[in-house]
Amino acid sequence: MATIKDIAKRAGVSISTVSYALNGSSKVTAETSARILAIAKELHYIPNAAARNLKKQESKVIGVFLSDFNGAFYGELLQGMKEGLKRSGYDLVACSGKQSHRLLPQRMIDGAIVLDESFSSEELLGYADMGHKVVVLDRDLRHPNVNQVLLDNKAGARLAVEHLIELGHRTLYVVTGPKGSFDSRQRLQAVKQVAARHPHLRYKEIEGDFKKASGALAGLQIVQELTEPAAVFCLNDEMAIGMYEYLTTTDVRVGREIHLIGFDNIDASQYMRPRLATIDYSKRMWGWLSSEQLLKLIAGEYVEHERIYVTLKKGDSMGPAHSSGFAEPSRLAHS
Amino acid sequence: MATIKDIAKRAGVSISTVSYALNGSSKVTAETSARILAIAKELHYIPNAAARNLKKQESKVIGVFLSDFNGAFYGELLQGMKEGLKRSGYDLVACSGKQSHRLLPQRMIDGAIVLDESFSSEELLGYADMGHKVVVLDRDLRHPNVNQVLLDNKAGARLAVEHLIELGHRTLYVVTGPKGSFDSRQRLQAVKQVAARHPHLRYKEIEGDFKKASGALAGLQIVQELTEPAAVFCLNDEMAIGMYEYLTTTDVRVGREIHLIGFDNIDASQYMRPRLATIDYSKRMWGWLSSEQLLKLIAGEYVEHERIYVTLKKGDSMGPAHSSGFAEPSRLAHS
DNA sequence: TTGTACGCGTTATCAT
DNA sequence: ATGATAACGCGTACAA
Question: What are chain B's domains?
Answer without folding.
Answer: 4-47 (1.10.260.40), 58-151+283-311 (3.40.50.2300), 153-277+314-331 (3.40.50.2300)
